[in-house]
Amino acid sequence: MGLVLIADSDARFCRRLRALLEGETDVRCDEVRTLEEASALLPLRRPDVLVLGSSVAPAVAVEFAETLRPDGAVAIVLVSSEESTDLLRRAMRAGVHDVVPMDQQFGEVVRAIQAALATSGPRLEEAHPVSVPSRGRVVTVFSTKGGVGKTVISCNVGVALAKLGLKTVLVDLDLQFGDVGIMLDLVPERTIFEAIQSFDRLDAEMLRGFLTPHSSGLQVLLAPVHPEDAEVVTVNRINAIISLLSQIADVVVIDTSAALDDVVLAAIDNSDAVYAVATMDVASIKNVRVSLQKLAQMGYDNGLIRLVINRADSKVWLDPGEAERTINAPVVAELPSDRLVPRSVNRGIPVVLDAPRSGVAHALGDLAKNIAAGCEEVSSSVA
Ligand SMILES: Nc1ncnc2c1ncn2[C@@H]1O[C@H](COP(=O)(O)OP(=O)(O)O)[C@@H](O)[C@H]1O
Ligand SMILES: [Mg+2]
């Protein structure tokens, strides 16, 4: 199991390379958009390999490699559109492991990373005699349609995961109209807005102080109190915050707004699985299908998508099998419609606590177990 940090301002490049590496090899990836972020993350994550993408100018990349040289802890692979012996020479002198050209299939890039990983093995064990630092699983609850139950599902699954004994953080990324605080009856003393006020000094320990604890053990990073404060929550900051949270949590659940904007894409970018929520009506199913098609066009790996059907027993003519075929993703949960849900929302007590024996609470608990099973995969492959 190797850890690769990909640095490139081009999100598509990072995403495609990451999908390739994580899909085909025993590798986990982090991604950052700037070298500043890479500098901040390197001592925290200690990756085996750092990939500098082709959007980093070769001269800048070589200079950056030189600053890392004394430490020697990371093998650097430089992806470059410029192929000159001069660049190669300068890069090698700076301690760069390999310089590879950018190609459509990423063949050279992946081979170079694998070779770099092979050489970094023994050094990694020296640096970490006990274990490689693990990363929690990140899951996003997604639908570009409002009112389908994203927040109900996020809150209940978050609580159920905490009850299973997993260190769980729920992030309310519905930045303008987030209602996780209301559904869990939490007082928003500190939110993601305050965390970002301290962004320059923020590390995982400090970020812990901005989480609001729920009685179940779930920790919550609440949305800003004032909608206009959402503006400060930029994509780079979201990437960094999710990365930090994944260091302190076994699982990070992200609730999102009904949109396909850069905030939601950032959540998906950082996720190991995306739970797309649909209700059993044609409009909702079509909506999910279209948004997943858009994601695929943008280069996202639809293999990350799991389908959750909410209010599955509503009196409509569709059945979940049909939804599965239309959307082309596996249905992992069917949640019944139950009046206990709006009652629990009004009480500010998630239904898994308010009516734990109800069918809907059981279904939500099973969904949490499905997510937890993914966590076990992650931790066992890290160990
Ligand atoms: N399974 C369900 N049964 C009954 N009502 C539900 C169910 N799931 C969600 N609801 C209701 O739908 C409303 C909208 O849900 P919410 O989670 O806020 O949607 P979203 O976050 O997708 O906008 C909630 O107030 C809740 O009462
Ligand atoms: Mg919501």
Observed structural traits:
383 residues, alpha/beta, Rossmann fold, 2 domains, eight-stranded mixed β-sheet, five-stranded parallel β-sheet, 16 helices, 46% helix, globular, binds adenosine-5'-diphosphate, binds magnesium ion
Could you describe the 3D structure shown?
This protein has 383 residues and is an alpha/beta fold. It folds into 2 domains: 2-127, Rossmann fold (3-Layer(aba) Sandwich), CATH 3.40.50; 137-382, 3-Layer(aba) Sandwich (Rossmann fold). Helix content is 46%, strand content 17%. The protein contains 16 helices and 13 strands. It has helices at 11-24, 35-45, 58-68, 85-93, 107-127, 150-163, 180-183, 192-197, 204-208, 235-248, 262-269, 282-297, 320-327, 340-347, 351-354, 359-382; strands at residues 2-7, 27-32, 49-52, 75-80, 98-101, 137-142, 168-172, 212-213, 219-221, 251-255, 273-279, 305-310, 331-335. The strands form 2 sheets. It has an 8-stranded mixed sheet, with helices on both faces. Strands 2-1-3-4-5 form a 5-stranded parallel sheet, sandwiched between helices. Helix 3 (58-68) packs parallel to helix 4, helix 6 packs across helix 16 (359-382) and helix 10 (235-248) packs parallel to helix 11 (262-269). The protein is globular and about 70 Å long. It starts with a strand and ends with a helix. Residues 122-133 and 378-383 have low confidence and may be disordered. Magnesium ion (MG) binds next to helix 6.
